[in-house]
Design goal:
403 residues, alpha+beta, DNA polymerase, domain 1, Dna Ligase, domain 1, four-stranded antiparallel beta sheet, 18 helices
Length: 403
């Protein structure tokens, strides 16, 4: 039997900000967009959750529920740095680690612990070191499977610790809970089940064939985990396993100037190139996403020779933008898909013709110089800072207001 630990930080972004600024402790802190901006809540403190605020909530709704909250933009560079420290601590206890997010991971401790008693010690040590070394709290779940470990970590949040050693313990815990307690059961799936009179895990157990008839392959999986059966392994995340790599931006006011949108796509394309270079990935497809003022979204894409060049991404995105209806735009994004690593990619023209790559770099440089003159921005000395999370949003909003 496997022994798996699931570690989940408590209100991660908010906790980091409260750690670094004690004046924020005990306050309803909301990380995400500001109340006067478009956007959503990234995370919030537990004090804010008492008002009904939660992650992914529209920021206007959050402000309506909690007008006296403290609203802050996220600082992703800081959170990534703290995340690296966290995972370094956690990984010392695991033979395999599966990173789910900056603040969350599955750890396979089967061989390193050897038994449940030692695994429990590992869980306590992770909590203690996370608190003592980084000044943060996490919730730890220890179980025989990934599904059970995830539920265990949520059982006593915040600063929780819970163990589910056997499938029967898992079933006993969740048997009369709502179907949404199970992995992969979201709102739409739950609605389908509810319409068939299936509301609890017990209902799933008693109506297995009905669940499978309604949901097919997903129904087979759901009935398995309703009985505590989950033999998935902890698998280390590989960047090339991602389906796509993209960057998008929501404007604070709708944009109908498509020349300006081309300028925005240039900066987003450079950001995508930098992200792809960090994880040494190439894309065999380039995509464009546009959300209009009426909230209707469309995506367009095109296959290309393997690339991560900002120039290639930009030029292809601009071509795709020319092909979509020209109406006021709320959000725009671009990215790479069909990702492949250095070893898996086929050679592209850039490999045979170095002057192509050189010309692409020159094209981006010239385009940036044009943006610098037009918007009076100091790209020469500050370009490296522009792609640091919030700064990119502020830069493009400045460009929008001064175009």
């Amino acid at each position: 039997m496997q022994i798996i630990i699931h570690v989940d930080m408590d209100a991660f972004y908010a906790s980091v900000e409260m750690r670094d600024n004690p004046a924020l402790r005990g306050k309803p802190l909301i990380i995400g967009s500001l109340p006067h901006e478009r956007g959503v809540v990234a995370t919030c403190s537990y004090e804010a959750r008492k008002y009904g605020v939660h992650s992914a909530m529209n920021i206007k709704d959050a402000f309506r529920l909690c007008p006296n909250g403290i609203y802050m933009h996220p600082n992703f560079e800081k959170y990534r740095a703290v995340s690296a420290q966290l995972h370094e601590i956690w990984n010392t206890y695991a033979s395999a680690s599966e990173t789910i997010a900056l603040d969350e991971a599955y750890l396979d401790v089967t061989s390193k612990a050897g038994n449940w008693e030692k695994a429990r010690e590992f869980g306590h040590a992770i909590k203690q070191r996370t608190r003592e070394e980084l000044g943060l709290t996490c919730s730890v779940g220890i179980a025989y499977s990934k599904t059970a470990a995830k539920i265990a970590s949520e059982e006593k949040k915040p600063d929780g610790y819970f163990v589910i050693p056997t499938p029967q313990d898992f079933v006993n815990l969740i048997i009369d809970r709502d179907v949404r307690v199970l992995y992969t059961v979201g709102a739409k799936t739950a609605e389908k089940l509810n319409r068939a009179g299936i509301r609890t895990v017990r209902d799933i157990q008693e109506k297995q064939q009905e669940v499978i008839r309604l949901l097919g392959k997903q129904g087979e999986w759901i009935t398995q985990i309703a009985f505590g059966q989950d033999d998935r392994k902890v698998t280390a995340y590989r960047p090339e396993d991602a389906k796509s790599l993209s960057r998008e931006l929501t404007f604070q006011a709708d944009v109908d100037d498509y020349a300006f949108l081309q300028d925005v796509l240039l900066l987003l394309s450079i950001s995508v190139e930098r992200r792809a270079a960090r994880v040494n990935l190439y894309g065999e497809g380039i995509s464009l996403k546009v959300t209009y003022a009426d909230m209707k979204s469309i995506t367009r894409s095109r296959l290309v020779p393997p690339t991560r060049s900002a120039a290639a991404i930009w030029l292809e995105s601009v071509k795709l933008l020319d092909e979509v209806p020209h109406r006021p735009v709320r959000l725009i994004g671009t990215g790479l898909y069909h990702l492949t690593g250095e070893n898996g990619r086929q050679l592209s023209f850039d490999d045979f013709l170095p002057e192509v790559a050189h010309n692409q770099e020159a094209l981006v440089k010239t385009a940036l110089e044009g943006l610098q003159q037009h918007y009076r921005l100091d790209f020469a000395n500050n370009l490296h800072r522009i792609f640091q999370g919030e700064t990119l949003y502020k830069t493009i909003d400045y460009m929008r207001r001064h175009k």
